[in-house]
């Protein structure tokens, strides 16, 4: 596994939003009976905030005002973290708060905390895209890019998709590379007791080298069940190497058809052709899978 301990604590980014609360509940379905550090990262409010105005008449100097504002903001942050701990405990985890004051770069800070604390997985929620500023594209995107340990990103889900997190299989994107194989092993360790479906991702370059006709066709998916009695199955995804969105859509379609509880992808590998495809797919899947996505990084070079 990447840096971190598979039996170590989960690091949960919690900002008090509905999306963050949903991430806790669904991550607990996928990884029950764990210990979580509920991290609330806060920054002092802007100078024109209501809190500034309310405390301005109590301050002796501008520096004193900054001190008062930071004290109030820190106290409020502890309350937010405490509510996250309560949600984690209600979901079946043991939990403790972790409160940090930061000045921007929450995703970087989450990744830094993960590297220092022997974290097994970072859990973050997203509020969707659609023009509204959410975690995906900011905090969760930065966390995925920087974290040395796996990151579970939980997007807004429909009722059927939420229900799948309880018992649904694990769909693992695999292109034959070392990074993809690492992701498969990591999924086995972190998500035990579930059947695994391997989604074989093949690029046209690979297919043409084997003399396969129609390699440039649109992505298709076909089931090829294993014959070894394993509960897992194999899905083949044929896609354009320069169309990660097409691969992500095919993965999302197959995840829906199989009732998958989570999609697993690797990132930042070493094979120039295969890993470039899978790395791009990882980013596209984060935006379009409509499932929780576990992104497993490869070790640093």
Question: Your description of this structure?
Answer:
- Belongs to the universal stress protein A family.
- InterPro entries: Rossmann-like_a/b/a_fold, Universal_stress_UspA, UspA.
- Residues 10-155, 169-297 form the UspA domain.
- This protein has 301 residues and is an alpha/beta fold.
- It has 2 domains: 10-154, 3-Layer(aba) Sandwich (Rossmann fold); 160-297, 3-Layer(aba) Sandwich (Rossmann fold).
- The protein has 10 helices and 11 strands.
- It has an 11-stranded mixed sheet with strand order 3-2-1-4-5-11-10-6-7-9-8, sandwiched between helices.
- Helix 1 (18-30) packs parallel to helix 6 (159-167) and helix 2 packs across helix 3.
Task: Summarize, please.
This is Universal stress protein. The protein is of the alpha/beta class.
Helix-strand blueprint:
Blueprint: E1 10-13, H1 18-30, E2 35-42, H2 50-56, H3 62-90, E3 94-101, H4 106-116, E4 121-125, H5 139-146, E5 151-154, H6 159-167, E6 170-174, H7 178-190, E7 196-202, H8 204-209, E8 220-225, E9 233-238, H9 244-258, E10 262-267, H10 272-288, E11 293-297
Parallel strand pairs: 1-2, 1-4, 2-3, 4-5, 6-7, 6-10, 7-9, 10-11
Antiparallel strand pairs: 5-11, 8-9
Helix pairs in contact: 1-6, 2-3, 4-5, 9-10
